[in-house]
């Protein structure tokens, strides 16, 4: 009886070892298969046209009397507004921003300069419009204002040119570009498996990169060697790069 019991126990232990070995072998094989993967990148680029233009115009006057200088500034501002409206710009697209007053006598470095006007008054006018071509055309006509005695500055401090062209409809082209980038990534993965004599498996992971918008002619759209961050040209290039992992068999 004891011999038979011991025999059964031995057989059970052997069977348990065999089953464990099979399960472990399958697990190791599955781990190896899942651990084999390749990482590829998919790229998509699209050329678009800016749909928003922001034109920053600065009016500047100099005078020894603050009230008189401010009055002159208002007169010049009216001329600029009339000029823009006459050329087809809607009044709702014209906004007055900030006014800057510089008192040269309050500046210790300029206080001893006698041949300079005391006050410099500057006001910023911003034109914000979706009619890109019209604003671009009008911006080339400012000589009419200069002939009328309006001193303009189309420089916007550190931002460079007073014209900024912006593409705002990124969300409308995102799905198409992501689909194209994934397709390009898969094509690259298939090419790899062909050359390495392997088989492409399932998609394991995909990481979407950031979308970038730059001027199409970026080489020619910088001022004094500084990049313009994609706002000086009407035509843009939108780019995105995806990182994709595929399992291989």
Q: Any overview of this molecule?
A:
There is one protein chain. Helices cover 38% and strands 32% of the residues. The chain is α+β, with helices and mostly antiparallel strands and 249 residues long. It has two domains: 94 residues, Protein of unknown function (DUF541), domain 1 (Translation Initiation Factor IF3); 115 residues, Protein of unknown function (DUF541), domain 2 (Alpha-Beta Plaits). Strands 2, 3, 4, 5 and 6 form a five-stranded antiparallel beta sheet that branches. It starts with a helix and ends with a strand. About 10% of the residues have low confidence.
CATH topology (level 3) name of the largest domain: Alpha-Beta Plaits
> What is the CATH architecture descriptor of the largest domain?
2-Layer Sandwich
Overall residue-averaged pLDDT value? 78
Give the class-level CATH name of the largest domain: Alpha Beta
Helix segment tally: 5
Overall geometry: elongated
Strand content: 25-35%
By CATH, the superfamily of the largest domain comes out as: Protein of unknown function (DUF541), domain 2
Alpha carbon gap, first and last residue: 52 Å
Radius of gyration: 35 Å
**What is the number of independent domains?**
2
């Amino acid at each position: 009886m004891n011999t038979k019991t011991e025999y059964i126990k031995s057989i059970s232990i052997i069977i348990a070892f065999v089953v464990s070995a099979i399960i472990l072998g399958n697990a190791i094989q599955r781990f190896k298969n899942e651990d084999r993967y390749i990482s590829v990148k998919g790229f998509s680029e699209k050329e678009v046209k800016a749909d928003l233009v922001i034109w920053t115009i600065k009016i500047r006057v100099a005078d020894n009397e603050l009230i008189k200088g401010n009055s002159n500034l208002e007169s010049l501002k009216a001329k600029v507004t009339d000029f823009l409206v006459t050329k087809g710009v809607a009044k709702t697209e014209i906004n007055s921003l900030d006014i800057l007053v510089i008192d040269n006598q309050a500046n210790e470095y300029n206080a001893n300069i006698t041949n300079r006007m005391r006050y410099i008054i500057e006001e910023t006018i911003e034109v914000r419009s979706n009619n890109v071509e019209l604003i671009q055309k009008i911006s080339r006509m400012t000589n009419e204002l200069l002939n009328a005695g309006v001193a303009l500055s189309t420089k916007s401090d550190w931002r460079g040119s007073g014209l900024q062209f912006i593409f705002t409809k990124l969300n409308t082209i995102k799905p198409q570009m992501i689909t194209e980038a994934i397709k390009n990534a898969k094509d690259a993965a298939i090419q790899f498996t062909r050359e390495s004599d392997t088989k492409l498996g399932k998609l394991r992971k995909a990481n979407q990169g950031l979308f970038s918008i730059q001027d199409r002619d970026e080489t020619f759209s910088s001022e004094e060697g500084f990049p313009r961050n994609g706002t000086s040209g009407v035509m843009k290039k939108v780019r995105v790069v995806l990182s994709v992992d595929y399992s291989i068999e």
